[in-house]
UniProtKB/TrEMBL annotation:
Keywords: Metal-binding, Nickel, Zinc. Involved in the maturation of [NiFe] hydrogenases. Required for nickel insertion into the metal center of the hydrogenase. InterPro entries: Hydgase_Ni_incorp_HypA/HybF_CS, HypA/HybF. Transmembrane segments: none annotated. The keyword Metal-binding applies. The lineage of its organism: Bacteria, Pseudomonadati, Pseudomonadota, Betaproteobacteria, Nitrosomonadales. NCBIfam families: hypA. Zn(2+) binds at C111, C114, C127, C130. This is Hydrogenase maturation factor HypA. One of its GO terms (biological process) is protein maturation. GO terms for molecular function: nickel cation binding; zinc ion binding. The keyword Metal-binding applies. It holds the Pfam family HypA.
Length: 151
């Protein structure tokens, strides 16, 4: 039996408690996976808010209209989960109604064997030219606040 998890319901301030074996119910399994995935995106959204708050401190703007995030294909970030978490985390901040624009950055690696740049769909991809493992990641493994549109 899996350990119980707590999910916050956006309509109520009290948590919903999920208890039982997740193997019994595919909906419960999906919810558990989504919640665990969203925890990663929630901390990323909180980091974005910290970056925004630092920018407010240095530049003294009062409202963020749009946030552009570059998200690398190799980061394992789920864009829809990040959008949800972004909206939740930004509540009550200068970015409360900000639009989130996501710019996808493709994964790119360097093969030390065949000396070629090759596309990477996953972090541990093999070289598409020679089949070598252990590509050196050149890009696509970062998340970056590219730009803020502010008032």
């Amino acid at each position: 039996m899996s350990a119980p998890i707590t999910v916050l319901d956006g309509m109520r301030s009290s948590p919903i408690r999920l208890v039982g074996s997740y193997a019994e119910n595919s909906f419960s399994q999906s919810l558990k996976c989504w919640v665990e995935s969203c925890m990663h995106e929630m901390s990323l959204a909180e980091n974005v808010l910290q970056i925004i708050e630092e920018a407010v401190h240095h530049q003294s703007f009062t409202r963020v209209k749009t946030v552009w995030l570059e998200i690398g294909q190799l980061t394992c970030v789920e864009p829809e989960a990040l959008r949800f978490c972004f909206d939740v985390v930004m509540r009550g901040s200068v970015a409360q109604h900000a639009r989130l624009e996501i710019i996808d950055i493709a994964g790119l690696g360097w093969c030390k064997i065949c000396m070629q740049e090759v596309p990477m769909a996953t972090l541990y991809a093999v070289c598409s030219q020679c089949g070598n493992f252990g590509l050196e990641v050149l890009c696509g493994d970062t998340l970056r606040v590219k730009e803020l549109e502010v008032e």
